[in-house]
Amino acid sequence: MMRDVMQNAGLEIFAEVGLLIFFGVFLALMVRALMMRRGEVEEVSQLPLQEPEPQHGEVR
Question: Which of 1, 2, 24, 58 is paired with 10 by a 20 to 30 Å CA distance?
Fold first, then answer.
């Protein structure tokens, strides 16, 4: 009975909208990654290896 209620509730549009949002964000990130300049790629690739900058008032 619950299956019939859920099938007839018309909720499939939410799944379709969620899928479209996912693919839209995925495509936007792919375009951004492919359009980056080589200098930006080098800078971003070194981020995990850099020591963090001391914050204002922080002593190391």
Answer: 24
